[in-house]
Amino acid sequence: MASLTIRKLDDTLKAYLRLRSAKNGRSVEEEVRVILRELADGRAEPAEAVAAVPAASSAPVPRAASAAGEPRITLIIGGGIAAYKALDLIRRLKERHIQVRCVLTSAARQFITPLAASALSHERVYTDLFDAESEFDAGHIRLARECDLIVVAPATADLMAKMAHGHADDLASAVLLAANRPILLAPAMNPLMWNNPATRRNVLQLRRDGIHTVGPNAGEMAEAGEAGVGRMAEPTEIAAAADHMLRPPQPRPLAGKRVLITAGPTHEAIDPVRYIANRSSGKQGFAIAVAARAAGADVVLVSGPVELHDPAGISVMRVESARDMLHRVEAALPVDVAIFAAAVADWRVVSEGTQKLKKTSAGMPPLQLVENPDILATISKLKDKRPPLVIGFAAETEHLIDNAKAKFARKGCDWIVANDVSPASGVMGGDRNTVHLLAREGKDVTVDSWPVMTKEEVAAALVSRIARTVGTAS
Ligand code: CTP
């Protein structure tokens, strides 16, 4: 079997792969595997693949456009006593920020009204296949396609039999037959019906077709004195199963790892009202913290003064000066990975004025500067608590790669993320970044140049690389 070396691919292909893998939060190798898998499945183009995936695919469900960016479910309510629970299901789904559009079978209308479903879903409810208003633009096709998932609750024995045999003689069965989205059934029926060989055959067929089910549960039936398997799963269970299909849990390759990140500028006081600062926005460091958290890491973010909110689930320490930052960083050790994205001021004034400096006839006050501690170098050179992976940044306005390489010796870190911060690049304060990842490998330094990306994409690509090096995915 031939092997593929990504480094040897042509630059355009590499740039495409890096961008795509960064966007999807995967390593380049994983991305190549996904692309090959898609090709093998006959899904060369991911966008079109969405339409080609069989309804039963257990792949992450592609998103249908919705105004609020929330996923959308077409909820088919079948005719059974459990239909009343479908009303509660609408509420449970909406609590999870899922939009719901209901289809009621004629049997369902014996148990609940379209008005109730409409009031809870805040959407028009669909009932008839031969409804001129909804069918003039192929309404059943739209109901089947303009959603991310189709849920059938309660899924009656009759509805499942129709599905298993491909019937389409009412709106619900026509939607199910026309569906190219995943389908989740919540069966509900009398235990004798559930255990009937015909139902068993149909359920088996539907599962073979890749249709998902939740329940039925065991318990008492609506019919007096009857009990067994056949009760519809509770609305909370169905909502959780649907949510799981819509938002499958992401891999957490950095679970159990502690990651420290510095971000933003530092402010070095001159007097109580003035300070030395720089233009760093902190966006790149914050984006890395968010990406590391999403990968499951326990993240400590030590940030200089920035106008960014604390990201959820991250312990954020706000500091002013380089010396404050160093103290917080030292207190956060030990960590598995330390990433120094802060633009630390190199100098501070020797003695900070306790009062505001005044203009005098003697002219400008002399500002004597002294060098700040180098946080990255201090941590890289620690004997006992040195993190196993230390990553620095090199913000340069010229000779990017050479200057970045020279920093390895001075700083003692393992990787350097070098970025061009010349005014023309728009990086300082902007949303995009062009970076090169330099890694020390023995006496050599490898340089991996990434295409222009958003700071979130750079963060995802960096975290993915870190995960391959220190994470559970490595
Ligand atoms: N850094 C640090 N503490 C400092 C200065 C820099 O931790 N006092 C870290 C930065 O967070 C970054 C790396 O060192 O990860 C390089 O920062 P940079 O400003 O590019 O380099 P300097 O060391 O300041 O060198 P120069 O300004 O001469 O390029």
List descriptors.
474 residues, alpha/beta, Rossmann fold, 3 domains, eight-stranded mixed beta sheet, five-stranded parallel beta sheet, 21 strands, 36% helix, elongated, binds cytidine-5'-triphosphate
Describe this structure in words.
36% of the residues lie in helices and 20% in strands. With 474 residues, the chain is of the alpha/beta class. The chain folds into three domains: 42 residues, no CATH class; 175 residues, 3-Layer(aba) Sandwich (Rossmann fold), CATH 3.40.50; 192 residues, Rossmann fold, CATH 3.40.50. The strands form six sheets. It has an eight-stranded mixed beta sheet, with helices on both faces. A hairpin with a 5-residue loop joins β9 and β10. α1 packs across α17. The longest helix has 16 residues. About 4% of the residues have low confidence. Cytidine-5'-triphosphate (CTP) binds next to α15, β16 and α16.
Detail the topology: elements first, then pairings.
Elements: H1 11-24, H2 28-40, H3 46-52, E1 72-77, H4 83-95, E2 99-104, H5 114-121, H6 132-135, H7 139-145, E3 149-155, H8 157-165, H9 171-178, E4 183-187, H10 191-195, H11 197-208, E5 212-213, E6 217-220, E7 227-231, H12 235-246, E8 258-263, E9 268-269, E10 275-276, H13 283-294, E11 298-303, E12 315-318, H14 322-332, E13 337-340, E14 347-349, E15 369-371, H15 375-380, E16 389-396, H16 400-411, E17 415-420, E18 432-433, E19 435-441, E20 444-449, E21 453-454, H17 455-470
Parallel strand pairs: 1-2, 1-3, 3-4, 4-5, 8-11, 8-13, 11-12, 13-16, 16-17
Antiparallel strand pairs: 6-7, 9-10, 14-15, 17-19, 18-21, 19-20
The structure holds cytidine-5'-triphosphate.
Cytidine-5'-triphosphate binds next to helix 15, strand 16 and helix 16.
